[in-house]
């Protein structure tokens, strides 16, 4: 029985013939869904077959522009086109927007990044990336451009960790374009990530740790140093500790905050570095005794003539001189 064709749908020849049956392959799609054809992507001399669709989509100014999409199959193309039409119009046009313009837009719309990460990304981009390739058009960027960038950074004796961070900044920013369908492929994918030599971390010996604790014993910072030495908690976790998370009667601490700085440089309590960092830390008898003594001394220090004050909420175990908290911004205090 001959299949009935819906007149509202266009009949399009998909490929010259089926490689198995040798007969023409025909598929049906709605008018206005775009032009579909085969596309060969060449990377480092290798050829990768793709399907391409060129579709008219409204940009952020309400003007229809022809935008290409790439995928392995037509089903994937149609899915990407529907997702692109459902998304709000982007202000980024790879043919016209430069890498610097795109980075400014991306960093201002990346809500998931922590304040410190945004600060580090901005500093790295302004210092090392923008002066070199910030004016390059997004659509013109190739793996060779980025290899030249990292070679230039290496010749300028920029540290390996800084070059690695530059790679991370660019990779994260360009991945957003790939997810949005603006770019078919991240050009950094085929570029080797700068290697950072493994740091030779020196762990204090038992004798050195005991010497440090003996020197700190009797000082107001002894409980803080004791926690840092015996628990392995991060600085931000210790400085962001609150009394409601300290359970001395049961002998443990619940780590669920970290003291960081926002984009304006002001201290704030934030979530720990990752989900695994939210954890329970057990205390030994010596740590419990030191913290219990610290609790008893807080009112005395607050009322004494010494310049020692604590947060008025009474929630911060380790307040610093002249009020506020300790900060991991520089050494022990800010």
Can you characterise this structure?
The protein has 334 residues and is an alpha+beta fold. Helices cover 36% and strands 18% of the residues. The protein is built from nine helices and ten strands. The protein has helices spanning 74-86, 99-109, 115-133, 143-155, 160-179, 206-216, 222-231, 235-239, 285-303; strands spanning 10-15, 25-29, 35-43, 46-58, 64-71, 246-247, 252-255, 258-261, 267-270, 279-282. The chain is elongated.
Tell me the series of helices and strands, N- to C-terminal. EEEEEHHHHHHHHEEEEEH
Percent range of helical residues:
25-40%
Main β-sheet, spatial strand arrangement? 3-4-5
C-alpha geometry: elongated
User: What is the top-level CATH class of the largest domain?
Assistant: Mainly Alpha
Structural class: alpha+beta
List the helices and strands and how they pair.
Layout (H helix, E strand, L loop, with lengths): L9 E6 L9 E5 L5 E9 L2 E13 L5 E8 L2 H13 L12 H11 L5 H19 L9 H13 L4 H20 L26 H11 L5 H10 L3 H5 L6 E2 L4 E4 L2 E4 L5 E4 L8 E4 L2 H19 L31
Summary tags:
3 domains, disordered C terminus, 3-stranded antiparallel β-sheet, DNA polymerase, domain 1, hpI Integrase, Chain A, 334 residues, alpha+beta, single chain, 18% strand, elongated, 10 strands
Gist of the model:
The chain is of the alpha+beta class and 334 residues long. Helices cover 36% and strands 18% of the residues.
């Amino acid at each position: 029985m001959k299949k009935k064709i819906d007149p509202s749908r266009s009949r399009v020849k998909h490929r010259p013939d089926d490689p198995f049956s040798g007969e023409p392959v025909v598929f049906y799609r709605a008018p206005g869904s775009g032009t579909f054809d085969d596309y060969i992507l060449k990377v480092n001399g290798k050829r990768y077959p793709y399907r391409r669709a060129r579709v008219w989509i409204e940009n952020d100014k309400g003007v229809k522009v022809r935008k290409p999409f790439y995928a392995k199959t037509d089903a994937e193309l149609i899915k990407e086109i529907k997702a692109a039409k459902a998304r709000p119009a982007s202000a980024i046009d790879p043919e016209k927007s430069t890498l610097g313009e795109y980075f400014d837009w991306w960093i201002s719309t990346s809500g998931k990044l922590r304040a410190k990460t945004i600060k580090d990304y901005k500093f790295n981009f302004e210092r090392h990336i923008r002066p070199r390739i910030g004016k390059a058009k997004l659509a013109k960027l190739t793996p060779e451009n980025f290899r030249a960038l990292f070679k230039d950074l290496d010749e300028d004796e920029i540290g390996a960790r800084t070059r690695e961070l530059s790679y991370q900044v660019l990779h994260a920013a360009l991945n957003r374009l790939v997810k949005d369908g603006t770019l078919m492929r991240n050009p950094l994918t085929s570029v080797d990530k700068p290697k950072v030599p493994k740091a030779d971390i020196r762990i204090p010996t038992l004798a050195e740790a005991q010497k440090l604790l003996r020197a700190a014993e009797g000082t107001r910072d002894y409980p803080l140093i004791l926690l840092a030495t015996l628990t392995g908690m991060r600085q931000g976790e210790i400085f962001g500790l609150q009394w409601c998370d300290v359970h001395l009667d049961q002998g443990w601490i619940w780590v669920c905050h970290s003291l960081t700085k926002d984009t304006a440089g002001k201290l704030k309590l934030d979530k720990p570095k990752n989900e695994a960092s939210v954890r329970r830390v057990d205390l030994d008898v010596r740590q419990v005794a030191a913290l219990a003594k610290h609790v008893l001394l807080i009112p005395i220090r607050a009322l004494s003539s010494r310049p020692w004050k604590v947060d008025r909420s009474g929630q911060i175990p380790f307040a610093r001189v002249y009020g506020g908290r300790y900060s991991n911004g520089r050494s022990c205090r800010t």
